[in-house]
């Protein structure tokens, strides 16, 4: 099962690469949604001020109940209001079966907060899948301060 999960997270990583340079100054993030081990949705971070990868992936699905799905996200979902509402709220709203997060967002307003929020709501969260590969790609695009 780990190989399958790694494959889906690697797909999310490849998706994230497609968001460059459009997403800047936001980090390039990819999201993949699966249902019964089949990819049913994908998303990448849009231009600055636009939708984040998780929201694009969620909105790409219309007929499959998301509470039967898993979502793979390269970077921890945002937990604060900026140009967009917090992505963590949409993930909770749709009650995903499981959430996989590649790396924690070092942004001072996030930095593990959405992971704590998800777990407090009873969401099964797995953090660190392909951590090294994702960090190698994304670290130069991350914000640690506002």
Keyphrases for this structure?
single chain, 146 residues, alpha/beta, five-stranded mixed β-sheet, 5 helices, 32% helix
Which residues sit in consecutive blocks of at least 5 with pLDDT less than 50?
A: none
Query: Hey, roughly how much beta strand do the residues contain?
Result: 15-25%
- Tally of contiguous helical segments: 5
SSE run: HEEHEHEHEH
User: Approximately how much helix is present in the residues?
Assistant: 25-40%
Instruction: Report the mean per-residue pLDDT as an integer.
Output: 94
Write up this protein.
The chain is of the alpha/beta class and 146 residues long. Helices cover 32% and strands 20% of the residues. The chain has five helices and five strands; from the N terminus they run αββαβαβαβα. The chain has a five-stranded mixed β-sheet with strand order 2-1-3-4-5, with helices on both faces. A hairpin with a 2-residue loop joins β1 (30-35) and β2 (38-44). The longest helix has 16 residues, at 2-17. It is globular. The termini are far apart. The mean pLDDT is 94.
Task: Give a brief description.
With 146 residues, this protein is α/β, with parallel strands linked by helices. The chain is 32% helix and 20% strand.
List the helices and strands and how they pair.
Blueprint lengths: L1 H16 L12 E6 L2 E7 L8 H7 L9 E7 L11 H7 L4 E6 L9 H8 L4 E3 L3 H8 L8
């Amino acid at each position: 099962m780990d190989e399958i999960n790694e494959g889906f997270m690697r797909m999310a990583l490849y998706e994230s690469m497609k968001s460059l340079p459009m997403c800047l100054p936001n980090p390039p993030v990819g999201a993949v949604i699966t249902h019964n081990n089949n990819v049913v949705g994908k998303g990448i971070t849009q231009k600055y001020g636009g939708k984040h990868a998780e929201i694009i992936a969620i909105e790409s699905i219309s007929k499959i109940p998301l509470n039967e799905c898993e979502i793979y996200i390269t970077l921890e979902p945002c937990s604060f209001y900026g140009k967009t509402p917090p992505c963590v709220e949409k993930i909770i709203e749709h009650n995903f079966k499981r959430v996989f997060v590649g790396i924690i967002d070092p942004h001072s307003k996030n930095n593990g907060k959405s992971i704590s929020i998800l777990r407090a709501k009873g969401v099964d969260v797995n953090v660190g899948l392909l951590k090294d590969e994702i960090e190698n790609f994304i670290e130069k695009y991350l914000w640690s301060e506002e």
